[in-house]
Amino acid sequence: MALKESQYIWLNGEFVAWNEAKVHVLTHSLHYANSAFEGLRAYPTGKGLAIFRLQDHTKRLLNSCRMSLLNCPYDAKTLNDAQIEILRKNTFAPKTSVYIRPIVFVGYGVMGVYHLNSPIGAAIAAWEWGAYLGDEGLENGIRVKISSWARNSVKSMMGKAKVAANYLNSQMAKCEAVEAGYDEALLLDSEGFVAEGSGECFFIVRDGVLITPPSDNSLESITQDTVIKIAKALGVLVERRRLTRDEAYMADEAFFTGTAAEITPVREIDARAVGDGKRGALTKRLQEAYFDVVYGRDARFADFLTYA
Ligand code: PPE
Questions:
Q1: Which protein residue has the closest C-alpha to ligand 1 atom 10?
Q2: Is the dihedral of CA 135, 137, 138, 144 positive or negative?
Q3: Is 303 contained in some domain?
Q4: Mutational test site, ligand 1, from 3, 53, 200, max ligand atoms within 8 Å of CB
Q5: Which ligand 1 atom is at minimum distance from the Cα of 260?
Q6: Whose CA is closest to 5, among 20, 26, 27, 24?
Q7: Do residues 282 and 209 share a domain?
Q8: How many A from CA of 109 to the centre of ligand 1?
Q9: Catalytic, out of 155, 162, 229, 284
Q10: How confident is residue 241, by pLDDT bands cut at 50, 70 and 90?
Q11: Read out DSSP for 32-44?
């Protein structure tokens, strides 16, 4: 799906025209993949666009920078304000959700692996982005393949840093799944326990209990945290514990969560139907409750929204 262009991008403190937001081909991050980024959504509400959990995303971005030794020249307030401003500057179609992508990167000027003498740049773009795994996927569920790739080991990479380098692993898993005719990959960790999707966290439902792995081998997902909070508010029992592939095969329901993926039901894993092969009942309830929260229709979670 081609990117839907908007008008302005924030680049190193200034708003520039979309097509002028450029970097040099010798930009360090392009070669060595040390760049920290975020993905946020802003949803149209009765009071205009509301960014979901802005402060939490910015905090994670700055933590990713800290872990990856990226000396971000901008503080949280500057980054938060710029994300609000990027929504005001651009014109978006009414009723569409907008995706915001901040990125902090190693810039141009020094080559070689050692990056601490390089300048650090930052950019924030925002564009209209529909359902990550398709409208049909949101409604009827997707088909998932357990990847032959193990998720990046905690001995080699920092899965809690949302840095570009971690996504080669995601990309290979995603391509393998798609080329095999599936929609998405589920990666296990090097011990064989469920880690996460290529860009999502994973949940199952068994006997009415919602189960999702701890963040041992995954990003600390903001959507996963939101879904856990919503489930608890609905009185659903939640367990955070390690999951194995056989348990995923036996699940009554399964779904992926992520800012982009929202709550996407999983209807099949490795040629095995999940439950009755459709979106599960609890999955549907959580999906509806999640959309109520992000669209500003649930006062209990009003603090999660920042209006642009
Ligand atoms: N794990 C991974 C590896 C991941 O990339 C994401 C987000 C998540 C879990 C869920 O995190 P959170 O959004 O905080 O709930 N993936 C982002 C990037 C997707 C992309 O293709 O780009 C996203 O959902 O924005």
A1: 258
A2: negative
A3: no
A4: 200
A5: 24
A6: 20
A7: yes
A8: 30
A9: 162
A10: very high
A11: H--EEE--EEEEE
